[in-house]
Amino acid sequence: MAYSIRDHARPSKSKDISGTLEGSAPLKQLVSTRDAYGRTLLDLGRENKDIVVLDADLSTSTKTGLFAAEFPERHFEMGIAEANMIGTAAGLASCGKIPFASTFAVFATCRTFDQLRMSVAYPNLNVKVVATHGGISVGEDGTSHHAIEDVSLTCSLPNFTVIVVADAKQAEETVRAVAEHVGPVYVRLTRPLVPAVYEEVCNFVIGKAIRLREGHDATIIANGLMVSRALEAASLLSAEGISTRVLDMHTVKPLDTLAVRDAAAGTGAIVTAEEHLLHGGLGSVVSQTVSEHHPVPMRFVGIRDRYARSGKPDELLVLYGLTPQDIVDALKEVVDDK
Amino acid sequence: MTDTKLSPSELQGKARCLRCHIIGMTATAGSGHPGGSLSAADVVAALYFRVLRHDPRNPQWEDRDRFVLSKGHAAPVLYAALAESGYFPRELLYGLRKCDSPLQGHPDMQQLPGVEASTGSLGQGLSIANGMALAGRLDGRDYRVYVLLGDGEVDEGQIWEAAMAASHYELDKVTAILDRNRQQIDGWTKDVMSLEPLADKWRAFGWHVLETDGHDMEAILEALMAAQEVNGQPSIVIAHTTKGKGASFMENNLRFHGSAPSRDEMERGLGEIRSEEKCKACGVQYPGPC
Predict the structure, then answer these.
(1) What is the pLDDT of residues B27-70, one digit of tens each?
(2) Which residues of chain A are within 8 Å of residue B116 when distances are taken between CB atoms?
(3) Which residues pair with B188 in a beta bridge?
(4) Is A91–B128 a contact, with Cβ atoms under 8 angstroms apart?
(5) What is the ipTM of this complex?
(6) Residue range A5-28+205-337 in CATH 3.90.1170.20
(7) What pTM was estimated for this model as a whole?
(8) b/e map of A55-68 (b: 16 or more CB within 10 Å)?
(9) Which domain covers residue B240, as residue numbers?
(10) B41: closest CA among B266, B217, B174?
(11) How close does chain A come to B290, measured CA to CA in Å?
């Protein structure tokens, strides 16, 4: 039977930009958000005895095994039972503990949505859901393991803070910040190594976008692994004489609406870029603020109402329209609309 | 702290008092779940007025025993027990389900002192109870955690995830009470989803199982005390009960799972409950202010 995967995915306009995670020059070394999480959690465990960790048979992958090895009495392996893990975390939080519950993003949210809603969000309990393996860059495991609805789901929950992490330095600062924050938080990390965006410091503050590049023709608002791609796109655009602002909107909820309004007012056009379904993700949230406060032309780079396939992360990011060139194309369109 | 010395007959009086409130509250609200509240009234009376270590003047006391109403639709029996314990004025009971009341249709721990968990979506309370027990163990506290499950509720898979975990972690401070009233919304539990052999299932999951007549106060106390003696494993008391217990026309009548008695039915029900023995101890007028 004739079958083209191009029929399935959004045809990428990408020509000469491979979009590989490894090929994200001019950014520098590749880093692991998961390893940063594991190391930081271990440090936090040494500093605060109320930090406890729960896993659902994936502590090797989520890197919480580091914490488990040093603090076995404060690490609770819950087996392949995510709903129970979230409920147990809620009970621990109601008694003053600061539970970090970790598994793959798809299981941490899709599998447990009612537990997140009823046992965590509604009573506003201090549970930290830190999920690895966000997005389609999970790769070969395919749709069952691709979390592309997680940001939308968690953003829909009152009381929740939702953060999508760009690199290892940011992961480190994020994990520290969410441990101090009182209230439920969802943090999304990635499976593959990602290009480092931040070197010495990220100056992460929950709900405060980071302006990585100044520009006046348009703004790219990105998060997660799309941040490095947004910077790459901005460099390509610069070579063509288009000046682009780049914002790392790591916190999707609560959104930094001031930064969005400022981008709309200051550059007059916005492109969002996310490794997530377009419905309900970063683009949706940003467009709500733009349309309410300062309407300007927008374009949205993300996954378009479909499930992805198995494949190498780099291949999938090309296939589903998440390359720097996709951002460049969207940005040129939106500038034309001004 | 509350008086822990009530006799079984005094506790029966408390249970009658809770039943009067349940009927009065739901009739006043015009909605709610009286059937599964009435079936649990004796167990809840035993817990709040004898077994639980708690202090209504200090609801956040760190060493208190916790009670999680996993079958959150039985909120009226919890609210009645909390009010009668002194967590808030009785008058609040009759605002049940009203827009300006902290007595939500299902319990909200953010709104009402003494409510330990927000419940109502079935199957989640046992996991929460396990978390509370794990926290107590880490902190070296000796409080116990009681969790009331519905029998229909144990259809939920999360209950069995939590049952495995409680056993795995040897949570002997956790005592579940299963309100075995044999009915759920769509009918008898045996017809909706077979549960038996229920005691064997819990035993197979590593629990110490006790069974009792859930309307015999002495038997309830005996079971709850026996559960406290169990070491190294969680315990469950399967309390055999009658849905709607206390008012003859409500007993085993599925209509009262999720529907309130009318005003006439309320009067009839209160008459049956109160005529058995005058409720001198509480002296409450039913219903309270609307």
Answers:
(1) 999 999 999 999 999 999 999 999 999 999 999 999 999 999 99
(2) 94
(3) B183
(4) yes
(5) 0.95
(6) no
(7) 0.94
(8) bbebbebbbbbbbb
(9) 8-276
(10) B217
(11) 28
